[in-house]
Every structure is written in structure tokens, then in C-alpha cells.
Amino acid sequence: MNFNELNLSPELLRAVEDMGYTQTTSIQEKTIPVMLQGLDLIGQSQTGTGKTAAFGLPLIQSIVPSDKKRPQALIMCPTRELSIQVAEELRKFAKYTENVRTVTIYGGQPISVQIRELKSGADIIVGTPGRIKDHIDRHTLKFEDLKVLVLDEADEMLNMGFREEIEDILSYLPSERQTVMFSATMPQPILNLTEAYMKDPEFIKIKTSEMTVSTIEQILYETNQGTKQDLLLQLLEIYRPELSMVFCNTKKMVDDIASLLLSKGYGAAAIHGDMKQEMRSIVMAKFKDRKINILVCTDVAARGIDVDDMDIVFNFDLPQEIEYYVHRIGRTGRAGKTGIAISLITPRQKYLVNVLERLTRAKINKKPLPTLAEVQEIKFHQMKTEMRKLLAKEVPDEIKRIVEELVDEGFSLEEISRALLFKTIGGDVFKEIKSPASLQKVVTHKGYSNLTLDVGNAHGIAAAHIVSCIAEASGISGRDIGKIRIGERTTTVEIPVQHDKAILEEVNKATIKGYTIKAVLSPVVDRPYEKRTYGGSGSYDRNRDFGNRSKGPRRSNYTEKN
């Protein structure tokens, strides 16, 4: 449906046209008429389906110009970033609509600044629950004239623990109002809210098949955990996205990946919940202005990031909550454009491919790892192109003097050129990433070596974490790992002696619970391989915990004694 087929004002249609939109998305087509009727509404829709316009356009049209300038609409969002993004969109929609003022309130910004904004009057308030409640308690925000309430990404607000604040805020709002809720999922706590605070709401659900994944090419690369970072660097060289996001599951991994990319000369920055709001705002502004072109982030910190021309979304880690996969990849392929979503998985995550295909109702293309020759050919071609451009430019005299001095010292121009090119290209291009299949270790037990890791009880490490890390990093079976002794800050693991050096190399590239590992080998354990019947201090029975599942449920908790 075209926007001009909806009962929207000429001012709103003109603003929408300025933004380059002509046709509605499914959620917009179904939601806008219901909201224009003033009915309560529940919209289930993922990121990237145009929710802000779905509630924002009819909401702006409902504003009645008033000298009081008291809030007539309240929009609650889970994060500062999303609040800012929603407010920016509303201001664009209200570009030609007179006397509609939007104010954003959120934590991390001085409350005095917000109080001054509120004193100047506001028709629409957009903010986070915590800061909205602060203003209510200070009597700087009153809702006597409120007509519309919108809860945006309600499931995420509940996940972040805002239920109490939301219910407190709702108790201050007029009972006669229109209540609109958008949520990607509909867990029981959301349904409880709808039953308690909404009146016969219309339920609109956008099916997965209607989502924007149809414009997204989904690609999968299978590799071991320890080679993911090298693979990410190679893929950035191969695809060379102008604007991309890299998703990680932990704040530490976000920082590690951002630091790696910066060290390699990429314009990258991290964004996660531990950063101060001022710094997060600076990073976001740079990303939107394209002063940086790679944003490394966690799921929660990425809320509110809305850039229509994102080239590629990288899933460095698959999300722990699989529903977030659609949220992530929906940040590319927007506004009718095509996009690419690339996921890096380990061999043990193969089963998730079918899950993701069912979730998105689209085929995921599994590609072989780039060969060394492919990576080098692409990199060298790019370098020659850049060099030809540079050679066409005038070189400053200061640079010429450096070259002359090196020639005087006996270096030839060819030697200088080779050294500079090698420094520019970097050594990473000469790393070959072996496929996981080639790393599978067939163990014929001849005994064990001790592998000592610098993590332990103080880091919240359990035996299951150790087994999973070593098996994923090296390719050996978990059953080939011997005794595990977990101390306060170190852990000793028995590993097959015939592969101990290869396992050491792979484990030193891996992480456990977000911690980068440092491992060392000790002398060979002076005992041959034997059938393991464990017990006693400092050990656990692998056959008991990882044995035949038909004998009972697999145990997930272990007890180790130091």
C-alpha cells in the first residue's frame, strides 16, 4: 500500500516523501489505520520492519495544538540509543506539522538539562522508564493531558528489569488513553501487562516470512573458535563493506575485537553497556557520520541504532537468545535495499543452521573458508590500485628526503618499496585458516600431558567450560580429555600427549566465559592412558557426567575440590 492511501495529513505525507518512502511495510499498513481509530493495539514485529513510522505517524496526527504544551503522548523505550533514535524520527515526520515538540529524557544526561527542556513544553515525551520515573517523582513531568502511550520493544524493557518502573509510571497516567505496545516476542510477562493495562487491544503479528530477511543474503562460515578473529579480518578484506556492524555476546569480546580492528588500521569502535552515555553518544555520532565504518557491539547496546544503508552485519558470535538473530540481521537490507549477514560458527553449532533457516524461512548459504591464494589475490589487487592512485599524486619533499637518506645508506629503491608494501599489507594476509574438518584430531592414547590454564574458580569456571573450550578449539573429542583440576586461579587439564602442542596452540587463541586464555604445557604425565573411574579430591568422573544419556539426564553442575 502507498502512504497516500492511508488517512494521513498532507503535512505527514510530505514529510514521508522527503524521507524517500512511498510504500508502507506490512506493520505500517496494518497498524496505522487502527491507531488512527484510537484503539489499543499490540504489534508483534522485529527490528527493521518500520515500527517507528507505524506508531509515530498516527501519533503525531493525534496531537491537538495547545498553549499548555503538556505531554499528549508518551513513548517508553528500553535504551537511551533507541529513545534518541525514535525522537529523531518523530521530528522528521513532524517536519511540516506545526506546534509539535518532542523531548527526549534518559539516564546519563544531566537531569537539569532535561528539566529546562520540559519547562519549555513538550507534546511528545520519548524516554527510558527509569528517567521518566525520576521526573515524575520530582514533579517535573505530569500527564493530565496524556492521550497516547506507546511501549516500544516491551520485551526488552522487561528483560532489562523495568517492570516495576513501568507499572509505577502507568499508575500516574489517565485511565482514558490509547495504549500501544510493540514487542518482538510475546512471553507471559508481556501478556500479563496487556491484560492489566489495555482495553480490548487489536493484535497484529507480522510473520517471519513477511520480514525484511527476503532482501538479505545470509552467509555462513564454519571455523574453530580460535581462528574466528583471523577469519573476520580476511572477510573484511574480501567484502570491504562501507558500513558494517560486528555482534559479540560479551562486553570483553566487543572490546577485544574493536582493539584488534583498530590495530589493523580499520575505522572501528566499540559500544556496550559499561560505557558512559557521553562516550556512547560520541561513538554513535561518528558512526552515523561515517567517521568510523565498523561498529562492534552487544545486542542491548545496539538497540536504537538505525542506519538504512548498512552493508554487512557480522555475527562474530551467534546470539545466546536465538530470536535475536533476526534483530541483528534486520539492520541490513532495509528500505528496499539488499544486504548481507555473515555468521561465524564453530563445528558444534552446526545444528543451529536448520534452526536459523526455520526462523527466517530463508536459505543460509554455507561458504568454504577463503583460501590463502584468494585472500592474497584480493589484497594485492587492492594494494596495486591504491598504489597507482598514490603514484599519480605529488609527494612532499620531506618524504623524498627520507627515501634519499635510505638510498645513501645503501638500500635500493626496490628494497625500500618491498619493505613499505609489506608493512602496509601486513602479515595477516599470509595466514591460512584451516577448515575445522582438517583439524579433527584422531586420538590413539599413549598417555597425557598437563595443560595449565590461567583461569579457575575465581573466574567462575567449571569443568564443562574447560571441556567445551578445548574440544571446540582443537577438534578432539571431549571424551579424550583426562582429569581436570580446578584451582582458585589456575586449572590443570590432562590432554593427549600426541596432540599436546597443537592443542596448546589452538587453546591459546580461545576464550572461556569471555576470558582470554594463556596456557602452558607441563612435562608428560607419568601414567599411560587407562579406563577412567574417577573419584576423590581434585577430579570428576567424565564417564558419569558425559556418559550414555539413556542412563539418566546429563549433569550440568560439577563439584571440584582444590
In short:
With 562 residues, the protein is of the alpha/beta class. It contains 20 helices and 20 strands.
Describe the structure.
The longest helix has 20 residues, at 372-391. The chain contains 20 helices and 20 strands. With 562 residues, the protein is of the alpha/beta class. The strands form four sheets. Strands 3-4-2-5-6-1-7 form a seven-stranded parallel sheet, with helices on both faces. The chain has helices at residues 10-18, 26-36, 51-62, 80-93, 111-119, 129-137, 154-159, 163-171, 188-197, 228-239, 251-263, 277-288, 324-329, 352-360, 372-391, 397-408, 413-425, 463-474, 500-507, 542-545, and strands spanning 41-44, 73-76, 102-105, 124-127, 148-151, 178-183, 202-205, 216-222, 244-247, 268-271, 294-297, 312-315, 339-345, 364-366, 448-453, 484-486, 491-496, 511-512, 515-516, 519-524.
Query: Mind telling me the C-alpha Rg?
Result: 28 Å
Task: Specify the number of helices.
Answer: 20
Largest sheet: 7 strands, parallel
**C-alpha end-to-end distance:** 67 Å
Structural class: alpha/beta
From the spread of the alpha carbons, the general shape counts as: globular
Mean pLDDT: 82
Helix content: 25-40%
Number of E strands: 20
Strand order of the largest sheet: 3-4-2-5-6-1-7
Uncertain spans: 531-562
Which percent band covers the strand fraction? 15-25%
